[in-house]
Design brief:
The protein has four helices and 14 strands. The protein has 220 residues and is mainly β. It has one domain.
């Protein structure tokens, strides 16, 4: 279904899972920014933002989900798997920013925890991308792939902060290119329809501002 003018259609499969092999989770949050809906507010879970603030967006498809338990492994030994995966479709107003948060860990006292947070800004003429969270790859499960797809511009942490989003201290290290590349895979499904102005962060005194410059769309 095509999105209405000025909005971006988003399809997402998110959730959490826990098993004898590891654990993982993926959630979406709305991150208010200067000039956008809920400006000045703290980030909140996407479902709460849409239900309480229609200027953010609206649900266009009922949420459907599956619960998992006692899934046989390849060796036919039952491994307890608990969790839930939900699929949802919603519209997001142009310019609104969401944060996709993911975390995954294999079992073992010395196994590292992989955490990442990617910021996406809705733009109807942006490239159509599919952001795949690799958290459940720590569990050889049979669940759906966790992903968020739509027309988005991927934002740097500096730009997110300069736009006025209230970034949690714990998320700053999770939003670096290195952290994101470890837990996300970005698939380009369609090229951008038109170019967005190139935005750079300029620091003046103790204040960061966004400077824009028009650029050409890239040929793919």
């Amino acid at each position: 279904m095509a999105a209405r003018k000025g909005v971006v259609q988003v399809e997402a499969t998110i959730g959490s899972i826990n098993s004898s092999e590891g654990s993982g989770k993926v959630y979406i949050f709305h991150s208010p920014h200067n000039g956008g809906a809920r400006s000045g507010a703290k980030e909140t879970h996407m479902s709460e933002a849409i239900k309480g603030f229609p200027e953010v967006g609206r649900f266009t498809g009922a949420s459907s989900g599956s619960r998992y338990n006692s899934i046989p492994s390849r060796s036919n030994i039952l491994k307890e798997v608990g969790g839930r995966t939900s699929s949802v479709t919603f519209e997001l107003k142009e310019g609104e920013i969401i944060k996709v948060f993911t975390q995954g860990k294999a079992r073992g006292w010395n196994a590292p925890m992989h955490t990442g947070a990617m910021y996406l800004q809705a733009r109807p003429t942006a490239a159509f991308v599919n952001v795949v969270a690799k958290a459940n790859e720590t569990v050889s499960d049979r669940t759906a792939v966790w992903q968020v797809r739509g027309r988005f511009d991927i934002l740097t942490l500096d730009l997110v902060k300069a736009l006025g989003c209230k970034v949690l201290k714990s998320c700053e290290g999770q939003s670096t290119p290195l952290s994101c590349s470890a837990v996300f895979r970005v698939e380009s499904l369609e090229p951008e329809v038109s170019a967005v102005a190139e935005r750079k962060v300029k620091v003046i005194g103790d204040k960061a501002i966004v400077v824009s410059r028009r650029r050409r769309a890239l040929s793919v």
